[in-house]
Amino acid sequence: MAVTRIIALATIMAISHVCGTIAAPQGRILEGENAAAGEFPWVASVRVDNAHVAVGSIISQYHILTSAQGVSELGSTPISSSRVSVRVGSINQFAGGQIVSASSILIHPSFGNFLHNIAIITLAEPLSFTDRIASIAWDTSELNETLADGINVLLAGWGLQLSGASPYRLQKTTLSVLSSHECEYKAGYGYESALCLNHGVNQGIGRGDEGAGVVFNHTLVGVASFFFGAGGTEFPDVSCRTAYYSDWILNNVDPALAYLK
Ligand SMILES: *[C@@H]1O[C@H](CO)[C@@H](O)[C@H](O)[C@H]1NC(C)=O
Ligand SMILES: *[C@@H]1O[C@H](CO)[C@@H](O)[C@H](O)[C@H]1NC(C)=O
Q1: Alpha carbon of 53 to those of 85, 140, 214, 222: distances in Å?
Q2: Distance from C-alpha of 31 to C-alpha of 21, rounded to nearest angstrom
Q3: What are the residue ranges of CATH 2.40.10.10 in the chain?
Q4: What is the pLDDT of residues 69-97, one digit of tens each?
Q5: How far is ligand 2, taken at its centre, from the CA of residue 219, in Å?
Q6: Which residues contact 40 (CB under 8 A, 6 or more apart)?
Q7: DSSP character at residue 128
Q8: Phi-psi region at 150: left, alpha or beta (left = phi > 0; alpha = psi -120 to 50)
Q9: Within 10 A of 222 (CB to CB), how many other CB atoms are there?
Q10: Beta-strand (E) ranges in 67-168?
Q11: What is the spatial distance between Cα 252 and Cα 122, in angstroms, rounded to a whole number?
Q12: Which ligand is the nearest neighbour of the Cα of 243?
């Protein structure tokens, strides 16, 4: 039964990838709004060969939490860190702020097709925090308990828009938590590690929004992982619960560096 479910998801994902590359342009933080400068100072654009691949969140002066899929080759093998950088301190994905190189990339060891889509980028030099560059704390467990059905959470990203264009300006949106029970019922995705997010039709996350921080009460409670189909469907979007990964994050964020934040 579990196998059937995974295959069904694989089919949906395969279709999503096909549509994303050859069919009509799809995917975006749909129906989002422009973010203001400094409104999301923890948001970074994660770049491979200097092109945006995912959104990241600054969790210390040296560390960016993001999705695994943008910075992995096969399974949990990271792509060469020399190809990876982040742009921080700018709501414009193409300009402004600072570009900082990565020194290493850690993919969650269990990252597979759809689960554990989470990675930590260590930067080659520390970020200097300003009103436009700042870290955000991640939830270890306290907020996890309060993430009941219908709780509103905030996301921001540069995912593709309806027109297929890459928005230069960071887009923000509010989505609502879908309980694990409801997510299992609606999408077969009631995993303990997953935080599912409800959205209206043609809303939610899209290509390029992967890795976006899911924020509640000024704290990172999730990392956007994937959407069904082309995005904006009747299925919920899925993120990784930071509470589930809290120990893994802590164990892999060099404390000597992390406490500099
Ligand atoms: C939100 O954070 C504040 C402190 O930062 C805390 O006092 C409050 O209890 C939190 N709210 C929830 C719902 O956890
Ligand atoms: C977070 O909440 C979910 C849903 O209530 C629960 O299944 C999970 O065990 C919680 N995880 C942690 C680490 O507290």
Answers
A1: 10, 27, 18, 18
A2: 21
A3: 2-34+138-243, 43-135+246-255
A4: 999 988 789 999 999 999 999 999 999 99
A5: 16
A6: 91, 156, 170, 172
A7: P
A8: left
A9: 32
A10: 84-88, 98-107, 119-123, 137-138, 152-157
A11: 10
A12: 2
Supply the pTM of this predicted model: 0.88
Pocket test for ligand 1, best of 142, 216, 217, 219 (most atoms within 8 A of CB): 217
Look up residue 81 and give its two tokens. Answer: 């860190």
pLDDT tens for residues 174-226? Answer: 999 999 999 999 999 999 999 999 998 888 898 899 999 999 999 999 999 99
The tokens 């994660």 sit on which residue?
Answer: 46
Report the nearest-CA residue for atom 11 of ligand 1.
Answer: 217
43-135+246-255 maps to CATH 2.40.10.10: yes
